[in-house]
């Protein structure tokens, strides 16, 4: 059977099976079997009693079936895949412990008196949680439990509160260590470290766009975010600023002390000597870094003792210490990756252990905490793995049938400008994202789209700057993640809506939630447009 007919059957079959509610993993596996039969043994369809010609039925360990099973085996035995349950376990511990609540209280103390401050606090908290675990669903649920009641109690506009929580809570898609980037890197054989680095600026750009939108919206219409009543004993103006400066100085001093100790360790071990064969410079840790590390520490100490004073600094620390555990976890996870200490998987394990030890130190560790966190990890990982197996099977079968080559020739044969080709892909990804889980999309669509993008003239991609050929896969991966960021809010199946609905007050309906999304979807599309217009923003740190 020709690949064009197979493609039509595949699309219609996928829509039908998903439409009747079949899980994506099973739907993909069924269609994979159908594709293999249509391509390599169609007599199984026309004359089932014959059991075909034997290519699929008599020789299961050879031919196309062997290639397919080998592809799935290789994917499932990837070492980096172990990081997925570790990051999920870390997120579950954060959600169940009081670390996130204390972080919210600290941010709320510093920013609640600003117009729209509670919404901004929610966004900042989401960024910190995204940088710790890279999980999306747990963030939306946690913010819905902590921030939504607070904003509604203060009289915030309901749509603003809902949109802030869901748009910010899905930032784990973009901000490293994103599980979406990890799976994309595995499927496309792209450096995950390069993907993390490339996603840094776009991820924080999107977060800043959300915060700017909140500030502008609340300044134009103050009734959207009424200011809370002053709390007794709250410091005013300059006093609060000095307290915050003292807190920041303490944190800066601690960070500089750790980096100075790290540099000394590397120096003693000879690991920062550029004359050693195979030397790779660490992000921080060269002896040339010592002057500015010591300089920052001296400036921070001078601010504590000469400007803020010890009493203000102590008060600032008391109100801000809830931010220290999240910053510590972020430093361990991302610092170990970019400092060249460990790989992605080991960093995920270190982060999970760090969160558990913090819970122990805070007196929150218990058998129940571990059990509930492990059960949630098992359920979430199981869902991802089954979808991965099913979608990888379907993608492999379609590849063996010649599907990617057929689609590439179809698109390139249309003789469209390069940017129109990419825009068409974006529309397809946005449409698929409204109906399908991101795991299925990255496994089914990306293996078809990425080779086409790599064949486009490099100088025709974007309008500002020119990508290097080795960075095309990284840029397209970040672009894909920005698409998936939109898909988490896209009706009718935007998962963020259902996550929030599970913890929202009864009077908030799904229609209300989707209505609250709309302006934030526009903000996300603006960020997507920036990546299309200025693709080299992804490579600024590479």
UniProtKB/TrEMBL annotation:
The keyword Zinc-finger does not apply. GO terms for molecular function: transmembrane transporter activity. InterPro entries: DctM, TRAP_DctM. The chain crosses the membrane at residues 6-35, 79-99, 119-148, 160-187, 199-220, 241-270, 290-310, 322-341, 347-372, 384-407, 419-452, 472-493, 513-541. Keywords: Cell inner membrane, Cell membrane, Membrane, Transmembrane, Transmembrane helix, Transport. It holds the Pfam family DctM. One of its GO terms (cellular component) is plasma membrane. It is found in: Cell inner membrane. Part of the tripartite ATP-independent periplasmic (TRAP) transport system. This is Neu5Ac permease. It comes from Roseibium album.
């Amino acid at each position: 059977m020709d690949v064009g007919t197979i493609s039509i059957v595949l699309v219609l079959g996928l829509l039908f099976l998903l439409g009747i509610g079949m899980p994506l993993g099973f739907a993909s596996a069924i269609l994979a079997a159908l594709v293999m039969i249509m391509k390599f043994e169609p007599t199984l369809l026309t004359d089932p009693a014959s059991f075909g010609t034997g290519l699929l039925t008599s020789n299961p360990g050879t031919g196309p079936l062997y290639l397919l099973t080998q592809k799935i085996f290789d994917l499932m035995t990837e070492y980096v895949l172990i990081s997925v349950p570790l990051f999920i376990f870390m997120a579950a511990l954060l959600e169940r412990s009081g670390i996130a609540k204390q972080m919210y209280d600290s941010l709320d103390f510093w920013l609640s008196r600003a117009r729209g401050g509670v919404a901004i606090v929610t966004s900042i908290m989401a960024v910190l949680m995204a940088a710790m675990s890279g999980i999306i669903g747990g963030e939306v649920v946690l913010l819905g439990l902590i921030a939504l009641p607070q904003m509604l109690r203060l009289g915030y506009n309901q749509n603003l509160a809902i949109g802030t929580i869901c748009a910010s809570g899905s930032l784990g898609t973009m901000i490293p260590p994103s599980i979406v980037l990890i799976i994309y890197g595995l499927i496309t054989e792209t450096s995950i470290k390069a993907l993390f680095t490339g996603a840094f600026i776009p991820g924080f750009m999107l977060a800043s766009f959300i915060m700017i939108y909140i500030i502008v919206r609340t300044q134009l219409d103050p009734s959207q975010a009424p200011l809370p009543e002053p709390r007794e004993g709250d410091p005013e103006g300059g006093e609060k600023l000095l307290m915050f400066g003292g807190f920041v100085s303490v944190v800066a001093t601690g960070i500089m002390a750790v980096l100075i100790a790290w540099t000394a360790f590397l120096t003693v071990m000879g690991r920062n000597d550029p004359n050693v064969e195979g030397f790779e410079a660490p992000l921080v840790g060269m002896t040339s870094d010592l002057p500015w590390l010591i300089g920052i520490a001296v400036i921070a100490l001078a601010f504590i003792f000469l400007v803020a004073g010890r009493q203000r600094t102590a008060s600032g620390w008391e109100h801000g210490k809830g931010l220290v555990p999240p910053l510590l976890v972020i430093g361990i996870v991302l610092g170990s990756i970019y400092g060249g200490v460990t790989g992605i998987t080991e960093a995920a394990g270190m982060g999970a252990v760090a969160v558990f030890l913090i819970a122990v130190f805070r007196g929150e560790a218990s058998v129940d905490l571990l059990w509930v966190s492990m059960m949630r990890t098992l359920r979430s990982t199981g869902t991802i793995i089954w979808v991965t197996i099913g979608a990888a099977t379907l993608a492999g079968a379609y590849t063996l049938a010649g599907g990617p080559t057929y689609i590439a020739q179809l698109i390139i044969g249309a003789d469209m400008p390069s940017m129109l080709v990419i825009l068409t892909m974006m529309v397809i990804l946005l449409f698929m994202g409204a109906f399908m889980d991101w795991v299925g999309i990255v496994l089914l669509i990306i293996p078809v789209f990425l080779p086409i993008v790599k064949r486009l003239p490099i100088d025709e991609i974007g309008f500002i700057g020119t990508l290097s050929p080795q960075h095309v896969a990284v840029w397209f991966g970040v672009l894909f993640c920005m698409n998936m960021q939109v898909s988490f809010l896209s009706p009718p199946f935007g998962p963020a809506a259902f996550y929030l609905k599970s913890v929202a007050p009864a009077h908030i309906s799904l229609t209300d939630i989707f209505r609250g999304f709309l302006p934030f979807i526009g903000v996300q599309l603006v960020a997507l447009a920036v990546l299309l217009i200025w693709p080299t923003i992804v490579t600024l740190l590479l």
